[in-house]
Amino acid sequence: MSAPDFVGVGTARSGTTWWDELIHAHPDVYRASGVAKEVHFFDRYWDGSWTDAGIARYHASFARPAGGLAGEWTPGYMVDFWVPPLLRRAAPEARILVLLRDPIERFRSGLTLTENRLTLSWTPRAAANGGFQRGCYADQLERLWQAFPPEQVLVLQYERCVRDPRAELRRTFAFLGLDPAPADALTAPEHRVNATSVRKATLSEAQRAALTRAFAPEVERLGGLVPEFDMSLWGEYEP
Amino acid sequence: MTAAHRSGRDLPLTVRARQSAIRVLRAARKVRGHRPPGPGTPPRVRAGWVGAPRDFVGIGAQKAGTSWWSALIGEHPDVHRPGDQPKELHFFDEYWERPFTEADVERYARYFPRPPGGSAGEWTPGYMVDFWTPQLLRRAAPEARILVLLRDPLERYRSGMAHTDEMDRRSLGRQDAVGSFGRGLYAQQLRRVFAAFPREQVLILQYERCRIDPEGELSRTFRFLGLREVSLDPSRFQRPVNPTTARKVELRPELRAALTAAYAPDLAQLIALVPELDLDLWPTARAGT
What we know:
The structure holds 2 protein chains of 2 kinds.
Chain A: E1 6-10, H1 16-24, H2 54-59, E2 71-73, H3 83-90, E3 95-100, H4 103-110, H5 113-118, H6 124-134, H7 137-147, E4 153-157, H8 158-163, H9 165-175, H10 182-185, H11 205-225
Parallel strand pairs in A: 1-2, 1-3, 3-4
Chain B: H1 3-7, H2 13-28, E1 50-51, E2 56-60, H3 66-74, H4 102-109, E3 113-114, E4 121-123, H5 133-140, E5 145-150, H6 153-168, H7 174-182, H8 186-196, E6 202-206, H9 207-212, H10 214-224, H11 243-246, H12 253-273, H13 283-288
Parallel strand pairs in B: 2-4, 2-5, 5-6
Antiparallel strand pairs in B: 1-3
Helix pairs in contact in B: 5-8, 6-7, 8-12
């Protein structure tokens, strides 16, 4: 029993289930039975009730044979401001994975029933603000990098993963210290749309315009933080 | 949610069933999030008075003393507000879901009748948080002077949680913490404000400085609003205690540390955006740097 080798921390509605499955298709990556992709271990500590006694319980989810790797991917960790420092204490050596998607598409996707399940009692206004906040990636990355050095964090772009899954998966495997070769052997790495998002929500033109303007400074800051991102893949934004 | 979603047309039965379950649950549960009544009908304009786009609009921040400061502005003899009209109009709250038209622009202008030469405004602290609002406000009140009152984000967070605490303590959870934290990301909010309004049209005040020197900061506010110099009775400067903040919630040390670290990047951005802020007045800023 020891700390996870990797932890995905972001972000919801951005293909993390797909990418997590591809990682677990690698022969050296293990997941103990009964352990979910999303462990949500740190969710409950929003009130400051964390103690380091929790560390051993967190580690219990990552049993694997010697030489094997194990990890989890809870997309809310990056949004929850209290999580990065706790994660650093519980898994100081873990490689951190972040998958980001066009924030407007992410927002739209969050309007489907899935996110409503979490925000059942919210007014439309509160839900809109919540969805917007989840797309302010630059703020989230800056907080994450306070807890983990940037070289310990891999920031992937969802649209690039869709365009060239094998190349991005090789990059992911190499970052995790795995043999990248199995990425080429995968037979069907293409993204299968999550069943819950089949029913697509739509945005009005005015809503799309409001989101585009409001996200513009955040996308620009993100481009400064992650220069290798190709912002032309995010519809409304050109570098 | 689309119109088709709402009407339930063209949806598979299971989706419709889940939607109706959500509707029932929404109705049954207490709706979270402050939802004040809309502004209602604009007041009638008295003969000889003008109904014009407001002169000033306060847009933030929640739990930062805006009721106190708005009341002090209202003490100025040239500032007018109909007796039954609230400090917070919440005019733009619903326009995430509704199109904003020229008729809405015209309607907003009618809320603050005053005699010629008089001044009028409102202060809805959520405007700065609602990402769609600065651009709409710019359309509706392009000349308005914009007021922002900021407070140490950790104190704002604590006070905001105390406010929620009054309403529904037991259901407080992760989503409330995330939401309350986001309302203290001032630099992020101001980037959107400055994209809509020129910098010199926005006055940024600090609650802590207003507490130390209410007279000086109020003079500054009056000057910014183009109001003549008046001196108020010093007894007016006493800040009445807001009943929702009377019961203080103390944050666990672990949470204070987490908030201090988490606000540091935004505070670094804030001081770059607003160099005249005195971050020495904010313990969170001192500890985080």
